[in-house]
Structure formats: C-alpha cells, structure tokens
C-alpha cells in the first residue's frame, strides 16, 4: 500500500463519514460528500449552521471512514482546517473536480470548506484471505 493506491481507492468513493467532538465532549458524525487530493487530504463542504462546523473550528482533530462497499475501508484521522485565499482556491478546484455541482452551492448562506490533512490512515480489505490491514502514519504538515 502506498499513497497512489490510497488516493485511487479514496477517489473512487464520493462519500465519507466525518466524526468530530462537540463542546460537551460527545462524538458527532455526519455523512459528507468528499474529494481527495493526491496528498491524501480529504476535502468537503458544509454550512456554518451544521454541528460539525463549530466542532471542527474549536477542535480540529477529526476522523473519517471512507468506502464500505464490500469489506474494503479506509479509516482516516487528521486535522481539519478552514482554508482561505489561495489555499481555498486550490482545495475548491479539487473538490469541484469531484463535485461539478459544488460551485452552485457557493451561493448558499454560510457555505464553508474544510481540508483535512492526514495524520494516520488504515486500509482494511477483509474481502481477501488472509485480510489485508495496513497503516500509514504522517508527520506534521
């Protein structure tokens, strides 16, 4: 398993479940449309009135599960950032490549974008015998 393999796997999946932590410490999860950059960043949009938005602003550590058709999944832990300026444009280009209807949502009140940079990724494939389970750890970016 390498970055190229993970990128290919993750780009085949349009949805992921993101989990964040609320102010009172409770976990909260949501299904979101995602795009994945070649650097394995997960990108998604949301609205500021969602529960995940204030959670990620205050506590940016989060996790994802991507892929659940069959028994192949990626578990992903990372740090969420709400980008601005040139970085926002860069991630929007990637996101809109996966979600061509994304620019229409830019008119929504409170639309926001997050990029989640990986810290840890586990790929699991239980469709094989023996199963394949591999992990990658990422340093600070």
Outline the structure in words.
The protein has 141 residues and is α+β, with helices and mostly antiparallel strands. It has one domain (3-35, 48-65, 77-137): Electron Transport, Fmn-binding Protein, Chain A (Pnp Oxidase, Chain A, Roll). It has four helices and eight strands. The protein has helices at residues 3-11, 52-58, 85-98, 102-105, and strands spanning 15-21, 27-33, 35-36, 42-47, 61-66, 72-81, 111-125, 132-137. Strands 1, 2, 3, 4, 5, 6, 7 and 8 form an eight-stranded antiparallel sheet that branches. A hairpin with a 5-residue loop joins strand 1 (15-21) and strand 2 (27-33). It is globular.
Briefly characterize the structure.
This protein is of the alpha+beta class.
N-to-C SSE string, H for helix and E for strand:
HEEEEHEEHHEE
Rounded to the nearest angstrom, the radius of gyration is 15 Å
Q: Helix- and strand-based class? A: alpha+beta
CATH fold type: Pnp Oxidase, Chain A
CATH superfamily: Electron Transport, Fmn-binding Protein, Chain A
Largest sheet properties: 8 strands, antiparallel
Overall mean pLDDT stands at: 95
Helical proportion, percent range: 10-25%
* Level-2 CATH architecture: Roll
Beta-strand content bin? 35-45%
Number of domains: 1
The N- and C-terminal alpha carbons lie at a distance of 21 Å
CATH class: Mainly Beta
Low-confidence stretches: none
Shape annotation: globular
Provide keyphrases for this structure.
Pnp Oxidase, Chain A; 4 helices; 24% helix; 141 residues
């Amino acid at each position: 398993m390498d970055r190229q393999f993970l990128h290919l796997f993750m780009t085949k999946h349009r949805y992921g479940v993101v989990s964040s932590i609320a102010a009172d410490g409770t976990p909260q999860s949501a299904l979101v449309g995602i795009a994945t950059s070649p650097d394995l960043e997960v990108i998604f949009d949301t609205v500021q009135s969602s529960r995940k938005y204030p959670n990620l602003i205050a506590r940016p550590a989060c996790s994802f599960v991507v892929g659940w058709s069959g028994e192949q999944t990626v578990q992903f832990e990372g740090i969420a950032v709400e980008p601005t300026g040139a970085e926002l444009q860069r991630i929007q280009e990637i996101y809109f490549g996966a979600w061509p209807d994304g620019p229409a949502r830019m008119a929504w009140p409170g639309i926001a974008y997050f990029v989640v940079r990986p810290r840890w990724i586990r790929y699991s494939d239980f469709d094989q015998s023996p199963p394949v389970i591999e992990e990658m750890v990422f340093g600070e970016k």
